[in-house]
């Protein structure tokens, strides 16, 4: 058993290790591939790229999905040049996992680097001041993994504490931010770089009735978020304060989403039940989260909302269930419209849109 003196030393050490105030988001950066595909032309792009123009009924279904998606364009790394170099990607009779992994092993960290450099520039401090790196992606399955490659690309210190989150899908961004908050608040002076990068190439497949919805929604992108807790240094400004964070898993829903590695890449499963599952459980999950900060009767319209835009139906269901004013999910709808669903990286785009909207409103209010 430790003596009183030892306990006092430990308590003192804990006190000096912890930050003085809750974690804040200090900077945000985003990036996308150069290839832009308009949503109203995606069916032609997709069925042409996969040489599947003869599947007319499935193509018509894709057109209907795109029309109802609330998306205007997406950024997609995969193009005809890559298909010409690697035709096995669209030949389900030939294994292509190794080809896909080779491509994303290089391109996922590079896209994350672009987003991270924007965030670091906004932050205004050298990359070597980053103490922790959290990298979330479903687009890779190789070691050394994307976190180590990104650390090298950015010139982070060899002592940077690295964590990789794999196959978290759309929840990857939220989980990474929760972990960043915990690291920042329990390590005084820590500055945590959250990197989120996804390329749909790893899941790309030829037209399939069971996968066509996903192909009509998902795009490619990367986000970077720098998180730190007080005291903030000169030149650091909090964009958002992270008061509390929690995660809830709905029991019995393991069937709704899934990914598994196959010889033809990662096989992605998305149930049509997902929007309904979210609608049926969102309110109770939020109430339980708010109880942790002793708020048992929150007014949903008093809050600002940074919601992952998993799809138009999901946003519609959340808005209806919580009786939100139409503008409360405007940032999420704008990101969905301009980029589609970029899985875990999307939340960085939503936060960036919220920040820009707020800055625009403040500027307009200052005008005579």
From TrEMBL:
Gene3D superfamilies attached to this UniProt entry: 3.40.47.10
Region span, Disordered: 1-20
CDD domains membership: CHS_like
Key words of the record: Acyltransferase, Transferase
The UniProt record lists the keyword Acyltransferase: yes
Domain Chalcone/stilbene synthase C-terminal residue range list: 241-364
Biological process terms in GO annotation: polyketide biosynthetic process
Any GO MF annotation of the entry: acyltransferase activity, transferring groups other than amino-acyl groups
Source superkingdom: Eukaryota
InterPro entries, per database record: Chalcone/stilbene_synt_C, Chalcone/stilbene_synt_N, Polyketide_synthase_type-III, Thiolase-like
Record-annotated Chalcone/stilbene synthase N-terminal domain positions: 13-231
Entry-linked Pfam families: Chal_sti_synt_C, Chal_sti_synt_N
Annotated catalytic residues: 170
PANTHER family hit by this protein: HYDROXYMETHYLGLUTARYL-COA SYNTHASE, OS10G0177300 PROTEIN
Family under the similarity heading: Belongs to the thiolase-like superfamily. Chalcone/stilbene synthases family.
Protein name: Chalcone synthase
Protein source organism: Oryza punctata (Red rice)
